[in-house]
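Figure 3 (text version): structure tokens given as input.
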């Protein structure tokens, strides 16, 4: 019985960590989508970093991605 209780606690912790990781990943993807829209709208990289709280490097990567995707 004790193993079952410990197992259930570990399982519950794992599920919670998974939910938190999914939420963080979702927030990151949303910030990146917003940054791409702001880049297309002509906002500067430094402004986008300030608004989205993404790293300078990430916004620069998104800019390169955007430039290579456009015809």
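Below: residues designed for each position.
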């Amino acid at each position: 019985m004790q193993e079952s209780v410990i197992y259930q606690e570990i399982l519950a912790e794992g599920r919670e960590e998974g939910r938190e990781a999914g939420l963080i990943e979702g927030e990151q993807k949303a910030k990146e989508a917003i940054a791409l829209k702001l880049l297309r709208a002509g906002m500067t990289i430094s402004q986008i970093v300030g608004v989205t709280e993404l790293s300078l490097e990430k916004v620069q990567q998104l800019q390169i991605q955007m430039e290579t995707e456009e015809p």
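The chain has three helices and no strands.
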